[in-house]
Amino acid sequence: MKFYWPLLVAVLAVAAAAASAEDVVGRPIASWQPGMLDIHQISTGRGNAGLYILPDGTTLLVDAGELAGPSPQHTPARPDDTRSPSEWLVRYVRHALQHDPQPKLDYVLVTHFHQDHMGEVAAGMPVSPRGYILTGVTRVVEDLKVGKLLDRGWPDYNIAAQTESPFMKNYLAFLKWQVKENGLQVEQFLPGRNDQVVLCRGPRDYPQFDFRNLAANGQVWTGRGTDTEHRMPPPETIPRKNWPDENVLSIAFRLSYGKFKFFNGGDLPGIRQNSPAWYDMETPIAKVVGPVDAAILDHHGYLDAMNEPLVAALSARVWTISVWDAYHPTPSVWERLQSERLYPGARDIFATDVHREAQTAIRDIDRLASSHGHIVLRVSPGGDEYRVTIVDDTSESHNVTKVHGPYRSR
Ligand SMILES: [Zn+2]
After folding, report:
1. Does the N-terminal or the C-terminal CB of the chain have fewer CB atoms within 10 Å?
2. Ligand 1: distance of its center to the CA of 208 in Å?
3. What does the alpha-carbon distance between residue 84 and residue 102 come to, in Å, rounded to a whole number?
């Protein structure tokens, strides 16, 4: 029998490449490769941070939370408290981008102005030579190369709910210096558009990618073109004492890659608690978002979020929860996520951690597919299928502890 050697070599090379993209329990997570879409929900125990590596290698960091700890109501710092959450975060990002000889975050997106998404200011935190405190986003931009920063307030921040708070003052001082002296680009995130986060390294190779801005500043996409609906009355007509909580103004987006779809709604609420009707931002989003394969829970699964219309509309196969508190998630949210009345079929829920009080409050919390670790959604080239890889967060081993899937995109 005669082999055609070049063909055999080619077949083996393809098999080896496929094998190297597989994640193996007990070994470090495989590197991102062109065509893959990775969504890392990074576990620091101190706030939100999501690293997105898009199919052409474009990079996006969604939030960089940093809470000063520890507190009995909070989960432990990960890997530990020998470094600040944002220092751990920067190190995680550098590792995840090691395929890139010149690692850069093309976009940093701040969903809203709360400390667990942008960085708290507290006594004893390090100060940059430029005069502002290094925490959360300010640390990320100090330590990593960043292309563009997107938030909901640029340029005047006149609908920021807490402009006088120390963390907001610090953020504004940081922006002033970075824009003037370091050329940082900053842009306001505008609902309805799909041209603010784009593939910027090789867009022609991946025409099936789309990033749609769904909501910000009380305004929601209508599903038609770039049209939006203003849910919130004009800010100047609202007495200052009735101003909405910052969460109502949060950014939301939907990302699509081929058949795969993912939703992130920041800390948007959907359940009114003695508040005006327009505080419910989830119901209008539910009308336009459509089903997704995976989503992160709004407001960490807190009791004012993930209302019935949104859970039913998203009908996700995979839910992820960014946890740092005893109320992430609350039992009522947990019930809705499990409900086959809201949508039929299987679903897996992954949490970055579970506080011991949530373990007591939620009887069947052991139904979580994973209850600690970094959560990496890894979508295969083209978007037809994806896996969920859990990575150890108690050290910097980057070792895989679990792999779920493959799941078929719908
Ligand atoms: Zn939050």
Report:
1. N
2. 31
3. 24
